[in-house]
Amino acid sequence: MKPIYAALLGLFFVATSCGDGSNSTSTYRPDSVGNINSLQIVTSEELWNGDVGESIREYFAAPADGLPQDEPLYSMVQMKPSSFTDFAQRYRIFLHVTISDSTNFSLNQNSFAKPQTGAFLTAPTTEALIALLQENQEKIKAAFYASEIKEKQKRIRLSLRKLDTLQQEFGVTLKVPTAYRVAKSGGDYYWLRKSIEAGTTNIFIYEAPLNAIRKDSAMADIINVRNTIGAELLPVEDGSKFITEAAYSPLLFSSELDGKETYITKGTWEITDAYMAGPFVNYAVKDDANNRWLILEGFTYAPSEEKRDLQFELEAIIKSAKIK
């Protein structure tokens, strides 16, 4: 057989072998589809309209963290298993929940498309399915979150803003879309803004001394840093200040960014003496090498818009940080 025909024949066999749900690296997978934070639920109408569906909604349509109004963690679309074929199998994240003789849970990558993360759960009764969901929901949400952050960062990389001054002034690089402009550089802070239909999304970067945030009082210290150092730096008209909304208790998480100890705080900001407020996500990164806490904060002002995906973009940008 001539080499060109052998190559074409081999390609044909690879292309026609997809669709079995396996994770074989040699099997062709089409590109996945779906909006960011759009979750496909594959389960029967009976399960979806009963206690299993209630359990799914409890975990995956719970309010997203740190937003002033309730917005679901994921926008969900349900379909029955018999319809889960061909193009319908290409959603980037999906939850497959069915009754079966055996109890099983698995998290699979690229089963039908790429990139793709799918969670498969089977059990012989609805009670067992609910228990399996409860046992594994945190692991599933963590996998979906990682998948969506990675996808958002991939889309951001399609058109990047060059930010040489950010690295020069703060020793950090970020992958930022060209839709953002530099509102302020030089001095004690760096400010990036993007105009949206009814407001802006923002990234605000500054430093705090290493003794400003202590492990045993991290939440109070971070709020104090926001309400003092951050509030003094961010320019606001008429002597008002950009502070943490006192009526809503922020959420605090311990994490890492670029291999460094990090506190993530999510809550609501407000402008004193003004009717302006919105959500923020604050990454306080312990940068021992530079004797500082590096503060990377994303905040949104969009009074008439849903804010989940706006804040998610800001978090994806912050997570791209590399510290010199």
Summarize the helices and strands and which ones pair or pack.
Layout: H1 3-15, E1 38-42, H2 45-48, H3 51-60, E2 75-79, E3 93-99, E4 104-109, E5 117-123, H4 126-156, H5 164-170, E6 172-173, E7 181-184, E8 190-196, E9 199-208, H6 218-233, E10 242-244, E11 251-257, E12 260-271, E13 277-287, E14 292-301, H7 308-318, E15 322-323
Parallel strand pairs: 1-2, 1-3, 3-5
Antiparallel strand pairs: 4-5, 6-15, 7-8, 8-9, 9-14, 10-12, 11-12, 12-13, 13-14
Helix pairs in contact: 3-4, 4-7
Fraction of helical residues: 25-40%
- Using DSSP, what is the number of strands? 15
The DSSP helix count reads 7
What's the story with the biggest beta sheet? 8 strands, antiparallel
**Terminal Cα separation, in Å?**
56 Å
The SSE string, one letter per element, is: HEHHEEEEHHEEEEHEEEEEHE
